[in-house]
Specification:
Blueprint (H helix, E strand, L loop, with lengths): L2 E6 L3 H16 L3 E2 L8 E6 L4 H20 L4 E6 H13 L5 E3 L7 H9 L4 E3 L20 E5 L1 E2 L10 H5 L3 E2 L2 H13 L4 E5 L8 H4 L4 H8 L7 E4 L9 H9 L3 E6 L7 H7 L5 H14 L4 E8 L6 H14 L3 E6 L17 H24 L5 E10 L4 E5 L11 E4 L9 E10 L2 E6 L6
Parallel strand pairs: 1-2, 1-3, 3-4, 4-5, 5-6, 7-10, 10-11, 11-12, 12-13, 13-14, 17-19
Antiparallel strand pairs: 8-9, 15-16, 15-18, 16-17, 18-19
Length: 445
């Protein structure tokens, strides 16, 4: 039996693609290795969204190339987003790679492995639309939470983003297929279901001619075993009253909205080809908080976009401070070849980008600290994830925190919990982005 290792890089959407490949390997009786020593092949599922992601992918490929030279591994297969943009460069610059596989060929990954093990050097770059959006998955997340990828690709055409060229146009998965996949995930132990796509709120528009996310949420709420439903990547122009009504009326749908805004200066937003201006974005945030007073809004902001002068940055900083987001990530503009922003005039120096990013994140830390202090004395339902024997305490997440993105709450208790259990925890303290708590249902500590 051939042993195969796999490295999955990048976003949760890429992680789901990896899980589908793992299921194919398992079905075809490959042994999936948990280390690289002595494996017959290593698959690297790459990201290529920004420079940092590309560098990480290349570092992993080069590391595997060294292991191949040492005889630790035999073959290297590179797939994912980096291949869609730089397949020729990978071939030319890293000859140790035995196969370069586009995302459209991931459904044939077992055949690719057999071909390289027989000595063939493989390049497979079929249309990206051939990427399997359905099929079995071998989960890489804890069994009590998992992703549900409801679409692939993107049709928004932001001027800084290469995703439409990498992944193709937006393609929704049939609703019945998604409901059945969610049922299977629930049977496997999933309690928290996290909906993902490049633009989750656009779900159904290409397939049904209308936005179907509210209908999908209603259907998913009927599945026994699913207790939390979380949405990531919700675009502001598609936060409809119908969606907010579903979130308000369906207890399983968490009042958590991941709302990537990128900027708040009208001129920069227009250059980015983003829909809406500063006033429009403030209106969307106001509608969310009016409909869902306890809503947690997470956003991402980009500093250093071409043409971002001090005035534009001040508009962004003012927006961040006035809107007081519950969660915020900030990254510097990374010029990507083939995108309109790559060759725009008035590029911003890296040192300026760094300084501006630090200002935004320092302001955000102060906002989050104050917001967290307001939570002291309140009780939240917590999904338990880990136990620390050294401090004799547990850690978990409230509805306010997405896994691997946001913070945690660490709490003490006299009871015993397993990962995936729920506990009612009262907040008693704050540690920057994290909370400290005590289980309200345990005996007195």
């Amino acid at each position: 039996m051939n042993r195969v290792g796999i490295i999955s890089l990048g976003c949760p959407k890429n992680q789901v693609d990896t899980e589908r490949m793992l299921a194919l390997l398992d079905k075809e009786s490959f042994e999936i290795a948990d280390c690289y020593d002595g494996v017959d092949a290593v698959i690297i599922n790459t990201c290529g969204f920004i420079d940092a992601a590309k560098e990480e992918a290349i570092e992993n490929i080069l590391e595997m190339a060294e292991l191949k030279k040492e005889g630790t591994i035999k073959k290297i297969i590179v797939t994912g987003c980096l291949c869609e943009r730089y397949s020729d460069d990978i071939r030319a610059e890293i000859p140790e790679v035995d196969a370069v596989v586009g995302i459209g060929a991931q459904g044939d990954i077992c055949s690719v492995i057999r071909r390289v093990l027989s000595g063939e050097n493989v390049t497979e770059m079929p249309p990206k639309e051939e990427l399997p959006l359905v099929g079995e998955r071998l989960l890489t997340t804890p069994e009590y939470w998992s992703y549900l990828k409801i679409a692939d690709g993107c049709s928004n055409r932001c001027t800084f983003c290469a995703i439409p060229d990498i992944r193709g146009k937006y393609r929704s998965v049939d609703m019945d297929v998604l409901i059945e996949e969610a049922r299977q995930l629930a049977l496997a132990g999933t309690k928290e279901l996290i909906l993902i796509a490049q633009d989750t709120t656009a779900y159904g528009l290409d397939l049904y001619g209308e936005l179907r996310l509210p209908a999908l949420l209603n259907a998913l709420c009927e599945i026994e075993g699913i207790e939390w439903i979380r949405m990531l990547y919700c675009y502001p122009d598609k936060i409809t009253d119908e969606l907010l009504e579903v979130m308000k009326n369906q207890p399983k749908v968490l009042h958590y909205i991941d709302l990537p805004l990128q900027h708040a200066d009208d001129r920069i937003l227009k250059r980015m080809n983003r829909k809406g201006d500063n006033q429009y974005l403030r209106g969307v945030i106001g509608r969310i908080r009016s409909a869902l007073p306890d809503a947690v809004i997470r956003t991402t902001m980009m500093v250093g976009f071409p043409g971002e002068d001090e005035e534009a940055f001040e508009h962004l900083a003012e927006f961040v401070n006035e809107c007081e987001f519950d969660r915020l990530g900030c990254f510097s503009f990374s010029p990507q070849e083939g995108t309109p922003a790559f060759s725009m005039p008035d590029q911003v120096e890296e040192s300026v980008k760094t300084r501006r990013g630090e200002i935004i994140m320092q302001d955000q830390l102060e906002i989050v600290t104050l917001k967290n202090e307001e939570k002291v004395g309140k009780t939240y339902r917590v999904l338990v994830e880990d136990y620390d024997g050294y401090s004799d305490s547990y850690s978990g997440r409230t509805y306010m925190d997405a896994p691997e993105i946001d913070g945690v709450i660490r709490f003490t208790t006299t009871d015993s919990y397993e990962p995936g259990d729920f506990a009612d925890v009262r907040v008693i303290g704050v540690n920057e982005y994290d909370l400290i708590g005590r289980d309200v249902n345990s005996a007195e500590l």
